[in-house]
Write a structure and sequence with these properties.
Layout: H1 3-6, H2 8-24, H3 28-41, H4 45-57, H5 61-74, H6 79-91, H7 95-106, H8 112-124, H9 128-141, H10 147-163, H11 182-195
Helix pairs in contact: 2-3, 2-4, 3-4, 4-5, 5-6, 6-7, 6-8, 7-8, 8-9, 9-10, 10-11
Amino acid sequence: SGVLDRDSEVRWDATAYTAYLYATFRDFEKAEALIATALEHADEAWIWAQRAAIHEMEDRYEDALAAAQRGLEINPHSRSALQYAARFLSLFEKDDEAIALLREALGYVESSHIAAQLSGLELEQGQLHEALASLDRYEQLALLKDKWGVSWLAGRRCDIYSRLPVSTRRWPRTWRRRRPTRAACCCRWASCASTT
């Protein structure tokens, strides 16, 4: 009775999400049984991404990467599969592959989450100007930002600007007369972002 009986797609998505919830409570036996059932009936990228998340909670990182990659085989545009694949590639110290995957994905998937993840990886790899460009893309794609999102964006930009050599910094036009300290940088980004 209800939507789960009438709509098989919703039913197997709900089953996969239920499996994920069981895994968060460390009941991996029940989680594995549910995710296997969901995949038996619906071989979908999102369900494979849930399997990747479950494997991650079990500390089975190789299996998690394989599940995410299987999701990408089914649907190369799946945001969740893309993000999990990049995450696990990075865990295996394949940051260049993870960055390439996310950069390519931003060409056809308009996702602020992918842009944010990409900026984090670029920052870790010292690709500071690229990380700023990814944050700009994040800002374009994240049409609705709460106070936390505004603060996060300001903080990330401050982290990047504080690491750039002074001669290569691309300061916003309103800042070019006086180059601010890191603390002032954070305050300015936050105040500029909160007024937009």
